[in-house]
Write a structure and sequence with these properties.
This protein has 185 residues and is mainly alpha-helical. The chain has helices at residues 2-5, 29-50, 58-83, 87-90, 95-119, 125-152, and strands at residues 164-165, 168-169. It has a two-stranded antiparallel ribbon with strand order 1-2. The longest helix is centred in the last third of the chain and has 28 residues, at 125-152.
């Protein structure tokens, strides 16, 4: 009898925060693995760039180093935040905008740094391989941006949703209840 009165009232959340392939609130399975791929490709580009022992023109090398290291570190951080419940503790409510903006900027920076580095290097195996991994990372970031737009649309410029009450959209009042405050009594 008591079981009839006290039935479970919570519904399981299918997008819980789990590791290794489970969906989270902000990352589906495809984007989960894309973030892992982006992290690994950025790390490989950074490691291979670090094996370059001499450079003809070092500024493109340094720029590529900055982009690949930044991409590795921040993508790892973003991946950990979005695939666990840590994003709830940070105090940021616009994670789709952060993810879209960051992923787009890193894709563009990888494209620019890879083009500059491929055009100004000594042609060593380490330089060529690091550029190849830089372009592969750029492609992974572009695919991620494509999936963000495909699944959620562009997160900027959205109209805020109207609050609902029991499934009915609340309407704004057309006339104020107190009338004009400056009118004479």
């Amino acid at each position: 009898m008591a079981n009839d009165v006290y039935s479970p009232t919570t519904v399981s959340n299918p997008k819980s925060s789990c590791w290794l392939g489970a969906e989270s609130k902000y990352l589906g399975k495809v984007r989960f693995f894309l973030k892992i791929l982006e992290t690994l490709l950025s790390l490989m580009a950074f490691i291979l760039e670090e094996t370059v022992t001499s450079c003809i023109s070092c500024h493109p090398l340094y720029f590529f180093e900055f982009v690949s290291c930044t991409a590795f570190l921040f993508t790892t951080l973003l991946f950990i935040l979005l695939s666990t419940t840590l994003h709830e503790k940070v105090g940021i409510s616009c994670w789709p905008k952060v993810d879209f903006g960051y992923t787009s900027v890193i894709a563009a920076l990888f494209l620019i740094s890879s083009i500059v580095f491929v055009s100004h290097n000594g042609g060593t195996v380490a330089e060529i391989l690091s550029v190849v991994f830089g372009f592969m990372a750029m492609v992974a970031f572009c695919i991620d941006v494509f999936f963000i737009v495909k699944t959620d649309g562009v997160p900027f410029g959205r109209e805020p949703t109207q609050p609902t009450t029991n499934g009915v959209v609340a309407q704004q009042e057309a006339e104020k209840l107190n009338g004009d405050a400056n009118a004479a009594p």
